[in-house]
Structure formats: structure tokens, C-alpha cells
Amino acid sequence: MSKIFEVSNLKKSFGGLTVTDNVSIGLDKGDRVALIGPNGAGKTTFVNLVTGHLRPDSGGVFLDDENITSVNAISRVRKGLVRSFQITRLFRDMTPEEHIALALLQVEGKARYIFGNYRRMSHIMDEIYEILSTLGLQTLARIKVANLAYGQQRLLEIALALALRPKVLLLDEPAAGVPQSETGRIEDALARLPEDLSVLMIEHDMDLVFRFASRVIVLAAGAVIFDGSPKDVVNNARVRIAYLGSYAQ
Ligand SMILES: Nc1ncnc2c1ncn2[C@@H]1O[C@H](COP(=O)(O)OP(=O)(O)OP(=O)(O)O)[C@@H](O)[C@H]1O
Asked: Count of domains in the chain?
């Protein structure tokens, strides 16, 4: 079976510095993969190449067998390659229900119905509450974002990404900045993501990585130095040297 998502021999240099060094990875439907690496390993650059915010020097990005290397960032989202939103894009005076409604209506080309009318559209209401329940936000549906805890706002970012009906979801550090007391909620929510959705998560919190991912890819100095099971990653000598340090002991 072909991969739902694949990057092949991706290369990117800034001046003389190679930041993405011949990276090839693939995801099957339903895969739960974590991308890790030390600071400066090239994770952000890799994500920008994948989302279409940066052009590679060479190599390709493929979604569901289509070569999308030259496709712009917005069209990649429409095709199903979606990155979780950033909190800075949330509207503080709007509720989670309104955020998801707006995203769903936009996907359907019906954004003009946002001003209250969407509540009469049963398929939209059903999908809003299905998505909010997945993220454990259903009881907060009508509370303004300004009154949500930080971790709840981060969950809303993921909910918004789901509203764009992704095939492949890129999660950029979903637990970053979230207090320890709230990370359990993030973990529970990630465990409830749709089974057939493929997820690539970039994350520094190794506990979350090991609980979430069935596969771990390690990037160091722009190159993939490991692609395998979480069990094997801690025993891999190159990874220990490049990244894990004391965690592996
Ligand atoms: N636009 C740019 N021009 C020049 N160098 C860049 C540019 N973007 C990134 N770099 C360099 O590329 C390297 C990788 O950066 P990148 O931000 O992709 O790493 P990262 O793994 O995301 O790091 P971190 O986890 O610290 O955010 C760094 O040395 C960085 O200074």
C-alpha cells in the first residue's frame, strides 16, 4: 500500500548551512509518529517545507500519492495536510463553538452563516460537538477563549485543525507551555483523535512522545538519524549522543 504522506530526499540550505539534509520519511494511514531532535536540528524548517511555507532546494512532498511540492500552503490545507493552529490566531472574544463553526463553514464555503444561523444547521452542530468532545472541550463550548486555561486553548487549536478535515495532522509541540497539571488532558485528547488520521507530532516532552507515538523519528543536524520504535530509540547510540542525554540512562 502506498503512503498517505511522504517526503522524499528533501533538501534545504540557508547559505552554506544545510538545514534539511536529504530527509525521507513516510506515514501510513493512522500512523502516530513523533519527530524529535535537539534545538537547531531543523524541525521548524522541516515543518515549514512540509506545509509549503518554505520551498525545498530539491526533493518532494507527496500527499495521498499526489506530488504537492509546488502546491501553495493554503491549497495543501485544502487537500488535507493540516498543521495545528497557533494560540495567537484564536479570537479571545469568541467561543470554541464559534471557532469550530467558522472553520467548518469556511470549509463548506458558507462562512456568511456564522452570525448565529449555524445553530440551525444540524450537520454543522453535530460536527462541532463531535470535534469538541474528541478534545474534551464540549462543556466549554460557549465560554469565551479569554476565559479558558492555557491548556484548553491549546486543545482548541487542535480542534480547529480537525475542523479542516485533515488526512494528515502536524502537531507542533502541543504540550509546550502547558502546566504539568494540564498535560494529562492533552494526552487524553490525543488518544481520542480519529483512528484513521495520520499524525506527525513535533514535541520536546519525552513522556508525551513515548505515550503517544508508535514510531519516533530523530532529526540531528538536519538529517534523520533514527526512524523506529520508541522502545529502540532510547537504546540507540547515535540518538543518545545527539539528543537524549540523561533521559536515556
Ligand atoms: N531563514 C534562515 N536563514 C538562515 N538560517 C536559518 C534560517 N532558518 C533556520 N536557520 C538555521 O537552521 C538551523 C535549524 O533551525 P530550525 O529552527 O529549523 O531548528 P529546530 O530544530 O526547529 O530548532 P528549535 O527546536 O530550537 O526550534 C539553525 O541553525 C538555524 O539557525
From this structure: 2
